[in-house]
Write a structure and sequence with these properties.
With 237 residues, the chain is of the alpha+beta class. It has helices spanning 10-21, 63-71, 99-104, 110-125, 137-145, 147-162, 171-180, 193-205, and strands spanning 2-6, 25-30, 41-42, 51-52, 58-59, 78-81, 86-89, 92-95, 185-188, 209-212, 216-222, 225-230.
């Protein structure tokens, strides 16, 4: 089967990889002149590693992509580290990645610490994110964890990421940050660009085609098939 994939981020690249592995004839189109989407890496001549545009690590429970790394023969390039997570408050840094550190934090009362611990435990254990879509993070985290904990811990993080829209973000978003996070983080030697290049090579080895610098304007159905219309033929690869 002839298949066109629009977008050369990790989703598009992985789809192309799996489809070519299954024997399909795949053409992948990417608007930018590089692959990888938000995980795309860049570097100068003096850098040994690429620096990602946005995403730069994995959680150790990201089993699908870690399995893909192993499948592509990059097991020896996987690096797992236990970083220190800290909170900057009133000009001082406080380690903040365990129950013991929460209890030692001097700017919350004991009741607020217990409520924060209960909130974190709830987010780790509660699987039904859909029920948190209709309430904001501010509403939910203030109600459960307390207004003081929201002001000291969560609000600065939300404001730093979302600016003036911080109070409009759904509780499910902040729940996911806590629910998914693992104490240890996984990195790939050389940056995510190492995985991007490995996927690109694997796709081309199975005779898949990758066209960068091409934006798709529209997709039109033509009887039993689809026609992809593009606006540029600036193919870089």
């Amino acid at each position: 089967m002839k298949i066109a994939i629009i977008g050369g981020g990790f989703t598009g690249l992985t789809a192309a990889y799996e489809l070519t592995k299954a024997g399909h004839k795949v053409t992948l189109f990417e608007r930018d002149d590089h692959l990888g989407g938000l995980a795309y890496g860049f570097r100068t001549k003096n850098w040994a590693w690429h620096l990602e545009a946005a995403y730069h690590h994995l959680f150790t429970n990201d089993r699908a992509i870690i399995g893909l790394i192993h499948e592509l023969g990059l097991s020896d390039r996987l690096i797992i580290k236990r970083p220190i997570t800290a909170n900057l408050y009133k000009g001082k840094t406080y380690q903040f990645d365990s129950p013991a550190h929460l209890l030692k934090f001097p700017f919350l009362s004991v009741p607020d610490k217990l409520r924060t611990a209960a909130l974190a435990a709830f987010c780790k254990l509660y699987p039904f994110w859909q029920t948190l879509e209709g309430i904001t993070a501010k509403q939910f985290f203030t109600t459960v964890g307390g207004a003081r904990a929201w002001e000291v811990i969560w609000e600065p993080l939300m404001t730093g990421k979302f600016g003036h829209l911080d109070s409009t973000i759904a509780a499910s978003w902040l729940w996911a940050r806590i629910h998914k996070r693992t104490p240890s983080l996984a990195y790939i030697e050389g940056g995510f660009q190492t995985l991007i290049l490995a996927l690109e090579k694997a796709i081309k080895t199975r005779e898949g085609t990758i066209k960068t610098g091409i934006a798709i304007d529209s997709i039109r159905k033509n009887r039993s098939s689809f026609v992809v219309h593009r606006s540029s033929t600036n193919t870089k690869r």
